[in-house]
Specification:
By secondary structure, the chain is mostly helical. It has 5 helices and 2 strands. The chain has a two-stranded antiparallel ribbon with strand order 1-2. Helix 3 crosses helix 5.
């Protein structure tokens, strides 16, 4: 699949620099692996509003936690919320 043109990106409110920028390396502990795996699994579950993504759809969270054999772990949920918040910040960065 060819890369989108600048005009095609602009149709969605994006710029090439939004995804070609140098990214920070993120380090996390082994204990955060469950949180990261869950966040990746939730990556198709964004709720959309008039201004773009508003947050993750937590209705599917119990199903995914069961599928990935993640117990109801408060730290995993807190990590997910941090990852969600930072992602929203990047989505809405002007």
């Amino acid at each position: 699949m060819p890369e989108p043109t600048d005009a095609e990106l602009a149709d969605y409110g994006l710029r090439r620099s939004d995804y070609e920028a140098d990214l920070e390396v993120v380090h996390f502990t082994e204990g955060m692996a469950k949180s990261w795996e869950l966040f990746l699994a939730m990556s198709t579950q964004w709720r959309q509003g008039a201004g773009g993504p508003t947050g993750l759809d937590y209705n599917v969270l119990p199903v995914l936690m069961n599928f990935y054999k993640i117990d109801s772990d408060e730290q995993v949920i807190n990590d997910l919320r941090v990852l969600e918040g930072e992602t929203l910040r990047l989505f809405h960065k002007k």
